[in-house]
Amino acid sequence: MKINQDTVLRGRKVVLVPYTAAHVPRYHEWMQSEELQRLTASEPLSLEQEYEMQRSWREDTDKCTFIVLDAARWPGQAEEESCMVGDVNLFLTNAEDPTLGEVEIMIAEPCYRGRGFGKEATLLMMAYGVRSLGITKFEAKIGQENEASICMFKKLHFKEVAVNSVFQEVTLKLDVSDQERRWLLEQTNHVEEKSYTELKRPVGVLET
């Protein structure tokens, strides 16, 4: 989705940046993991297929993707690719209801799990969806075995609405009422929105 191609969302633990070609090799490395393939219901792709996927997601109008970085290390502490923690996605795939967004979070680096990185990244994405994309309803589809993710979404006020025993998948939903919107924006009132181009520009280099 082009709307977020220059958007950076900086929270306390995470920084969300647009998914670019520079992130693909690390992302591809993550997705060789059988555990992540199982948790995300994904098939392994070749590196070239992963580059094609990144390009298509950048152009598609129904997919909003951010890479999750460690805010303690980027910008400034290390190369961006070495600070990658996971990714967060919002799919607007219901043509009959453009206000419905399916949210998906992956914390790929095991050492970052269970430390609140996934929760903050999801909150940042949800607030962005409400403010910038007109989302009023969220949905999450999670594998039944992924109890940590199911628990996290319930803490974010999602309610379990369906279980698909064939696909071993749980569906959770959240309607963004006025009360939920206020809560969501309160949870993310510390977030700074910045320009990706500006943050990546070397110190001392002026725009021409």
Question: Your description of this structure?
Answer:
The C terminus is likely disordered. The protein has a 9-stranded mixed sheet with strand order 7-8-6-5-4-3-2-1-9. The radius of gyration is 17 Å and the shape is globular. It has about 210 residues and is of the alpha+beta class. The protein is built from 7 helices and 9 strands, in the order E-E-H-H-H-E-E-E-H-E-H-E-E-H-E-H. The longest helix is centred in the middle third of the chain and has 16 residues.
Short overview:
By secondary structure, the protein is of the alpha+beta class. It has helices spanning 24-30, 34-40, 47-59, 117-132, 147-155, 178-187, 196-200; strands at residues 7-10, 14-18, 63-70, 84-91, 100-107, 137-143, 159-164, 169-175, 192-195.
H/E topology pattern: EEHHHEEEHEHEEHEH
Mean pLDDT across residues: 91
Ends distance: 26 Å
Low-pLDDT residue spans: 203-208
Task: Give me the number of helical elements.
Answer: 7
Shape: globular
How many strands in all? 9
Class from secondary-structure proportions: alpha+beta
Helix content: 25-40%
Write the layout of secondary structure elements.
Elements: E1 7-10, E2 14-18, H1 24-30, H2 34-40, H3 47-59, E3 63-70, E4 84-91, E5 100-107, H4 117-132, E6 137-143, H5 147-155, E7 159-164, E8 169-175, H6 178-187, E9 192-195, H7 196-200
Parallel strand pairs: 5-6
Antiparallel strand pairs: 1-2, 1-9, 2-3, 3-4, 4-5, 6-8, 7-8
Helix pairs in contact: 1-3, 4-6
Keywords:
single chain; 208 residues; alpha+beta; nine-stranded mixed beta sheet; disordered C terminus
